Amino acid sequence: MCLGIPGEVQSIVAGELRTGRVAFGGVVKEVCLAYVPEAEVGDFVVVHAGFAISRIDREAADRVFAYLDAIGEAER
Amino acid sequence: MRLVDEYRDRDVALRFAAAIRARVRRPWSIMEVCGGQTHAIVRFGIDELLPPELTLIHGPGCPVCVTPVEMLDKATAIAARPGVVFCSFGDMLRVPGSELDLFAVKARGGDVRVVYSPMDALALAERMPAREVVFFAVGFETTAPANAMAVYEARRRGIKNFSILVAHVLVPPALEAILASPACRVNGFLAAGHVCTIMGLDEYRPIAARYRVPIVATGFEPIDILQGIAMCVEQLEDGRAEVENQYERSVRAYGNATAMAMIQEVFEVVPRAWRGFGPIPASGLGLRAEYAEHDAERRFEVTTVTAREDPACQMGLVLQGLVKPPDCPAFGTRCTPEIPLGATMVSSEGACAAYYRYRRLAR
Fold first, then answer.
1. Chain A residues with CB-CB distance to B63 below 8 A
2. How far apart are the C-alpha atoms of B119 and B97, rounded to whole Å?
3. Which residues, including other chains, have CB under 8 Å from residue A60's CB and lie 6 or more apart?
4. CB contact under 8 A, A1 and B2
5. Strands B267-274 and B278-287
6. What span, in angstroms and rounded, lies between the C-alpha atoms of B187 and B158?
7. How many Cβ pairs closer than 8 A exist between chain A and B?
């Protein structure tokens, strides 16, 4: 139910309700962007039930892979 | 797909598993709160990568599963009325009520439709002014902003024939209910990343402190879950009980302020009954008085509600993390996804459905 899918913002329509087109792999959907006022074209957003709920922080996305080094995988 | 595939990398997963094995000294039980996480764990075999000291307990984070029978009975009663178009996320259609599910109502001629977003239901109401369009507003904090926006827009645009049947629930009170139970054996939590994306981390801090449990906001892909487990184990072995954020690419400590403001505008905190738990104070959302005209429970007074559960179903114990699905005598015999006894077998995020789908043949 709380499924959220990351997609790339392709275009934005600023109206009474901010919406835009978001690409998920090859599928493009119309999504409400009212809750991510900071998102711009080219940003990735997490989409749930037709609404973008966050703009993905790309630096934080990469930090996941640095974690193993940080905790000293060498403990092995 | 970008931002999905890299978090499913097998080699990285194995490195995380090795790091966890190297760190664990004592036995710990960690509960993943969200049903989406449960499915990823069972589907990708994450539990089987873990050392024997670690036990994963599946949590109550499936809104479809915890929606009480009386609410399902109200949904089927409303959906069966002439003139009503009843819209729902697909997950809810097969969940058994006392006598019927929404599919059965549809088979008998009810106009029941699956929508992807509550805004689709609102658009239907706008297109069909002579019909009453009702949306079944089920979900946790993640879904509340979407449902709030649909109601807010209905009022703003004067769409009078749109209402929602509200069964919204909140995660932190359920964690407290689990921790307060004498049967509780949870040492740490992986909190649900998309719930935290909306609400932030602050509500978890007093819970972590009071019950001395680490709580790690965690994503949904295998690498996310393994990192969440690693962070939780790190805290447990160090004797810390803090709130940490594994899913920082989506979760900000303060949450999504715009979305929270819309939830506050439309909803207020109310007591709710949880299927499998019973009533939990201040554990749900209901419409504020200003939006009462869009409340389906008021619009369609439903009184004939029987609320009967099948006594053979152990979903309450499953949802509380006290019984694993295959240990239920009805699992895979009397209870299957085709003919489910309980919601945990039918929901795409239910723990019983996960085991049935991915583990039945391995038994």
1. 1-2
2. 26
3. B248, B249
4. no
5. antiparallel
6. 50
7. 139
Per-domain boundaries in chain A: 5-75
Please write the tens of the pLDDT for every residue from B39-86.
999 999 999 999 999 999 999 988 989 999 999 999 999 999 999 999
* Residue-averaged pLDDT of chain B: 94
What residue segments make up the domains of chain B, in order of their start? 5-62+183-245, 65-170+255-299
CATH number of B65-170+255-299: 3.40.50.11740
In contact, B70 and B273? CB cutoff 8 Å: yes
- Taking domain A5-75, whether its CATH number is 2.30.30.140 is answered by yes
Q: Is the CB of A1 less than 8 angstroms away from the CB of B149?
A: no
Residue with the two structure tokens 């036995």: B27
What would the two tokens of residue B14 be? 């194995």
Task: Locate A74 and state its tokens.
Answer: 């060498």
CB-based contact, B68 to chain A, within 8 Å: no
A48 vs B142: CB contact, 8 Å cut-off?
Answer: yes
CATH number for the region B5-62+183-245 comes to 3.40.50.11750
* CA–CA gap between residue B9 and residue B297 (Å, rounded): 47
Q: Residue B261 has what pLDDT?
A: 98
Residue contact A57–B249, C-beta within 8 A: yes
Q: What angle separates helix B10-23 from helix B222-238, to the nearest 10 degrees? A: 10
Residues 6+ apart with CB under 8 A from B333: none
Rounded to the nearest 10°, the torsion over CA B180, B183, B186, B190 is -70
